[in-house]
Write a structure and sequence with these properties.
It is built from 6 helices and 18 strands. By secondary structure, it is α+β, with helices and mostly antiparallel strands.
Amino acid sequence: MPRPLWIIDAFTDRPFAGNPAAVTFLDGVRDDAWHQAVAAEMNLAETAFLSPHEDGYSLRWFTPTVEVDLCGHATLASAHFLFESLRLRNDAVARFHTRSGLLTARRAGDFIELDFPATHATEAATPPDLIPALGVAPAWVGRSIFDVVARYHDAATVRGMRPDMALLARVPARGVIVTAPGDEPGIDFVSRFFGPEVAVPEDPVTGSAHCALGPLWAERLGKRVLVGFQASPRGGVVKVEVKGERVCLGGQAVTVVKGELLA
């Protein structure tokens, strides 16, 4: 039976920006190899697989090569899919059962707000390959549950960085986040995310990275509500509200393709 397969640009209000995710809705159980094959076929940073759950929806995320534990932009895209396909009313709360526990999403005007776990980054030793890979020594290095975080003093360094991906793939982490204070009005911090270890050389906009960036910059800037800009070539804005051990991520999404999965 054909299944809906949409491509949705997340953390943007216009097509061909933000971070694209494929979203499909399953009516039965398929094995892991099938999920991985579909994600490899899509060849996007993440493909999201939704299926009914007794209390909401089961949600899994796959890169072209591996299943991941947490993904922000594909969760935003999944919520957008449920609202736009009328599987959920606009005033309903989307409940996702995932490898990172229960995640929720709700509409807030033109935005969708995601309730995610905070993944605090604590100061850590600099991995041997990090500075040669990035080309510039950071002011501070930390580690979250998933990623290495490198903080710089100025946004120009982050925007202009051209990492050595072969070296960066040797850093033992899901990915490397580079970040600095914002350099434009209304932007509190900028960031980029590199994940060659999981077949994502540079992720356009990484919601889950902001689960670490939000608490980091909230502490440094002394504010709980922030706006981050991920300075990839596509770019995207993430609103962040830090609530102790939870982080609220806000973003917009745009559907660019509606099709069917026949395999």
